[in-house]
Amino acid sequence: MTAQPRDSAPPRHLRVLTVCTGNIHRSPAAQFLLAEGFGPHSGIVVASAGTRAVVDAPVGEQVAKLLRADGIDAGSFAARRITEPDVRSADLILGMSRAHRGHAATLWPAAVRRSYTLKEFARAAERVDPEELFAWAGSDEPRARLLALTELASRNREPAPPEADDIVDPDGQGDDVVEQVYREIREAVLTIVGVTRVRRGRRSL
User: More exposed terminus of the chain, fewer Cβ within 10 Å: N or C?
Assistant: First the structure.
């Protein structure tokens, strides 16, 4: 199905919600990496929450260390539980697994069209035609392109095995597992950010 250009401008702020279980490893890593990638003037606000959050806990020590290595300070973070208002207000929901994506829809069923796993959405970003994305967004602004990508991805979902979508929970596991999880999240984020920030006529890095 060919997308049609949008008739109106995107909202002032586009809200992205990343979701995992405890909200101390995977979803905050995705939150901070996405926010850093989009930049402070993108019009995109990124938050995170957990389905069984360790409420008020900081980012896990190893994840915080990996974020610092990427120049990101997560010191002010406090974990929180996902709520229905979180889901209702989010323009894009990125779960770290299919279960997290599904949990968002149980809180507000209408969110199913804009809920993906992080890796699923990154695959959609890789498949999108740059000219179609520009036509739908009508702008090179990151927030317009991300909103357009959300719409296009909903029309081009492809079946995938669980291992292609789910990022394992590193809680209680060794540093090597945490590092692998972080690399998976970082790779997916780089793909998404690259597509939303590239200018028309240029390919992402």
Answer: N
Q: What is the pTM of this model?
A: 0.90
- b/e burial code for range 160-172 (CB count within 10 A of at least 16 → b): eeeeebbbebbbe
In the chain, where the domains are located: 14-191
Q: Return the CATH fold of 14-191.
A: Rossmann fold (3.40.50)
**Cα–Cα dist 82/107, whole Å:** 9
Report the alpha-carbon distance of residue 17 to residue 83 in Å, rounded. 11
205 residues of the chain, pLDDT tens digit each: 444 444 444 456 899 999 999 999 999 999 999 999 999 999 999 999 999 999 999 999 999 999 999 999 999 999 999 999 999 999 999 999 999 999 999 999 999 999 999 999 999 998 888 888 988 998 888 999 999 999 888 877 777 887 789 999 999 999 999 999 999 999 999 999 999 886 655 444 3
- DSSP string covering 85-126, please? HHHHH-SEEEESSHHHHHHHHHH-GGGGGGEEEHHHHHHHHH
Element (H, E) at 37: helix 26-38
